[in-house]
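Risk register update: the risk of archive-format incompatibility is retired. Evidence:
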Amino acid sequence: MADKKAGAGDTVVIKKYANRRLYNTATSAYVTLEDLARMVREGTDFVVFDAKTNDDLTRQILTQIIFEEESRGEALLPVQFLRQLIGFYGGQMQGVLPSYLEMSLDSFSRQQEQMRGQFSKAFGAAPGAGILDEAVKRNMALFTDAMKIWPGFNALTPGAPTPGAAPAPTSAPAADPLAEMRRQMDEMRNQLDKLSKGS
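Archived output:
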């Protein structure tokens, strides 16, 4: 089903009806989760609202898309990552994790774009699939290492060492938890900068 790509700054409104059908108000047509996944890949921004209550359902629909992709064999998220992610729900780091993940994935995307640009300049075309696959694997390893550096991620894995990090102090926790979170975020940014420069 053809979709009209939103113009610059436009956000497509999708309405979800009680019968679970999704209606694209920009194209006046019903769409599937697969259509919405394609819109994401094409860079089309959209929001999903409940047609009756007008509640924002965007997060739930995006989560459903991920579930569908994972269940059809397009596995992208490692099992250990999923376990750790679930463990953060309701924890003290839940408020910090979204911005950390967003920052990490943004850095990852920028690296991929820089690499594509370098290959295009050097060879006049995009790199072969084998070269790009190897680069993606390397960047995923860097991303995983960056997550291990942050103490919060290893907290869910008893006895897991933290590469490059000093042993945890035995003194009492910091008086200001917010200041400690900020300090950890600064450390993460520094580590990500080092990793991205080293790739």
